[in-house]
């Protein structure tokens, strides 16, 4: 009998460790906090968790600035705490995926410190992208690239002898120098990091900035400014260069060497690759490359039936063209939560830069949540694998983070004009009446939690029929039981244009994005609905129902 590998239809829950659960009261989430809450996730009904970085880091970019890829940051615990968490997750039937950040390190990484102490042209410098500047005395950066967080992508160093020195490349914060992937030593090091975590029995990796590792030869100027709403990577010399695929072919061989014959224990590789067009994304999941890549096209699709139908069809066709399962995602730690995004008048998604300030127009919370639930009910019916972001099962909106509390480097790098992503990273409310809403035993959390989170706390929803948490559990259990993730989708004709209608396995999905209620056919059996409903009631505006076929 052939096994359908677990990752083809897995629902993966993203944990942002800093904000999930704090066991020791320092206001920062940690591994022991995660361990204590694993049973909540098993009960929710997900198949796997993905942990954003918990490695040693000065936390200039929420841990995506890694100082030691093989060690746990003391604020999160230690390797023993990791092993305990992993073992307990496995005992509960949950797989664990960790983040690997191969494009850059922290400037506190030993390699970067060694590079600063060494001279131009040394093997230590060759691990990163150091170049001489242009113009008189090299005062102009080597090219015009901009950092994703704002400002130039180059920073000039002072040489050990005190003279003005070379420049180093950082596509993100100044504290995140890019590795030079043309250097075999970098490749060997990252493969060794993969093995380190595979040997500890992790079930896979989410690959940070998977499209950025290789830069165009000669580092030519880019077309500026970047458009952060669409086509963000098309034909830019730092993104999606052909050379990345060879790296992933070798990574695939590496993880495949850990497979156990006859056992469903594949180790997963999932790319974070913001690339355009969709065919470019499909290249990352060819049979000998990665297993999955995040479907950001779906996440970026506006709340519009025609656009969503097109996005789903195109996504499925692209994935099928290379034999990969499609993935679906609506929220993560880099974008405004979908409960807020879909409640905004302008629902455009800006990558890495969204954030609502106290003086900005506020999203309509009720409409946002209603649409978010309807969108989730579409997503969790789709064939393939789905990614959930912590707190979306509670219907959490983005929080308004006051200026003085903002930690996202985007804020300072943009001259305090772009708030960044802290709004979706605010710690999870577990108990209404407890300090920090039960996030931890301390009185506060590293980002302030808004009062609106108290009524959404886990203990307020856990036993309430029709709560968002209950709704997610229902969808996840039906999805698993009816094997929707490995079923085939067929569009259903005959509905108004603003209705999304399809069948998947034994389920008919109807999402009404129009203003006019849609009558339910006589004798319909409702399996799940995104809103509480009276028997036989029409499908309201911004409501999704799952019916028995
Ligand atoms: C993508 C990560 O998701 C984001 O949070 C981070 O800032 C950048 N990569 C840089 O590592």
Give a concise summary.
With 549 residues, this protein is an alpha/beta fold.
Q: Roughly how much helix do the residues carry, as a percent range?
A: 10-25%
What's the gyration radius in Å? 23 Å
**Strand segment count:** 18
Oligomer: single chain
Question: SSE layout and pairings?
Answer:
Blueprint: E1 11-15, H1 31-44, E2 48-51, E3 55-56, E4 68-72, H2 79-91, E5 95-100, H3 110-117, E6 130-131, E7 154-158, E8 164-169, H4 184-199, E9 204-207, H5 243-256, E10 268-271, H6 278-282, E11 292-293, H7 296-299, H8 305-321, E12 327-329, H9 338-341, H10 365-379, E13 385-389, H11 409-413, H12 458-461, H13 468-481, E14 489-491, E15 499-504, E16 507-512, E17 526-529, E18 543-548
Parallel strand pairs: 1-2, 1-13, 2-5, 5-9, 9-10, 10-11, 12-13
Antiparallel strand pairs: 3-4, 6-8, 7-8, 14-15, 15-16, 16-18, 17-18
This protein binds 1-deoxynojirimycin.
1-deoxynojirimycin (NOJ) binds next to loops.
Give structural notes:
The protein has helices at residues 31-44, 79-91, 110-117, 184-199, 243-256, 278-282, 296-299, 305-321, 338-341, 365-379, 409-413, 458-461, 468-481; strands at residues 11-15, 48-51, 55-56, 68-72, 95-100, 130-131, 154-158, 164-169, 204-207, 268-271, 292-293, 327-329, 385-389, 489-491, 499-504, 507-512, 526-529, 543-548. The mean pLDDT is 95. By secondary structure, it is an alpha/beta fold. The strands form 4 sheets. An 8-stranded parallel sheet has the order 11-10-9-5-2-1-13-12. The chain has a 5-stranded antiparallel sheet with strand order 14-15-16-18-17. Strands 6-8-7 form a 3-stranded antiparallel sheet, with no helix packed on it. The structure holds 1-deoxynojirimycin. 1-deoxynojirimycin binds next to loops. 1-deoxynojirimycin (NOJ) binds at residues 61, 64, 101, 172, 208-209, 272, 333-334.
């Amino acid at each position: 009998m052939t096994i359908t590998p677990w990752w083809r239809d897995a629902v993966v829950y993203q944990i942002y460790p800093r904000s999930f659960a704090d066991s020791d009261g320092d206001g920062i989430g940690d591994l022991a906090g995660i361990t204590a809450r694993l049973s909540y996730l098993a009960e929710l009904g997900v198949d796997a968790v993905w942990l954003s970085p918990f490695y040693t880091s000065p936390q200039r970019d929420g841990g995506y600035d890694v100082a030691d890829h093989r060690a746990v940051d003391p604020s999160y615990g230690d390797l023993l705490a990791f092993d305990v968490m992993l073992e307990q997750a496995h005992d509960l039937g949950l797989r664990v995926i960790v983040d690997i950040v191969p494009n850059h390190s922290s400037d506190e990484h030993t390699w970067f410190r060694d590079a600063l102490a060494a001279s131009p042209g040394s093997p230590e410098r060759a691990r990163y992208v150091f170049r001489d500047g242009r113009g008189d005395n090299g005062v102009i950066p080597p090219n015009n690239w901009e950092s994703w967080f704002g400002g130039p992508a180059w920073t000039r160093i002072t040489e050990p002898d005190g003279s003005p020195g070379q420049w180093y490349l950082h596509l993100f914060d100044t504290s995140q120098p890019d590795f030079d992937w043309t250097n075999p030593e970098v490749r060997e090091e990252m493969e060794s990091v993969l093995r380190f975590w595979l040997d500890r029995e992790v079930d896979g990796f989410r690959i940070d900035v998977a499209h950025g590792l290789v830069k165009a030869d000669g580092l030519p100027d880019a077309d500026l400014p970047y458009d952060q709403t669409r086509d963000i990577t098309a034909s830019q010399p730092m993104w999606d260069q052909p050379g990345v695929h060879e790296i992933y072919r070798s990574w695939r061989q590496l993880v495949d060497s850990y497979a156990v014959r006859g056992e469903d224990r594949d180790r997963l590789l999932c790319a974070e690759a913001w690339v355009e067009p969709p065919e470019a994304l499909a290249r990352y999941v060819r049979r000998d490359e990665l297993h999955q890549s995040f479907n950001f096209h779906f996440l970026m699709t506006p709340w519009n039936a025609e656009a969503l139908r097109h996005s789903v069809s195109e996504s499925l066709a692209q994935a099928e063209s290379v034999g990969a399962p499609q993935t679906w995602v609506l929220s993560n730690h880099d974008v405004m939560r979908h409960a807020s995004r879909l409640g905004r008048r302008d629902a455009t998604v800006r990558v890495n830069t969204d954030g609502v300030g106290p003086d900005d127009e506020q999203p309509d919370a009720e409409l946002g949540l209603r649409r978010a639930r309807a969108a989730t009910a579409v997503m969790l019916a789709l064939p393939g694998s789905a990614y959930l972001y912590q707190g979306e099962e509670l219907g959490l909106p983005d929080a308004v983070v006051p200026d003085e509390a903002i930690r996202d480097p985007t804020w300072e790098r943009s001259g305090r004009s772009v708030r960044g992503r802290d709004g979706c990273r605010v710690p999870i409310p577990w108990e209404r009446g407890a300090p920090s809403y039960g996030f931890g035993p301390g009185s506060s959390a590293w980002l302030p939690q808004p009062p609106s989170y108290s009524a959404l706390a886990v203990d307020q929803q856990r036993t309430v029929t029709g709560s968002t948490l209950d709704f997610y559990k229902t969808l996840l259990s039906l999805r698993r039981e009816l094997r929707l993730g490995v079923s085939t989708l067929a569009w259903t004709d005959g509905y108004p244009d603003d209705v999304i209608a399809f069948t998947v396995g034994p389920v008919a999905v109807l999402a009404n994005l129009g203003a006019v209620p849609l009558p339910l056919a006589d004798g319909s059996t409702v399996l799940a609905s995104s809103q509480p409903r009276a028997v036989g009631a029409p499908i309201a505006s911004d409501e999704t129902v799952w019916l028995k076929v």
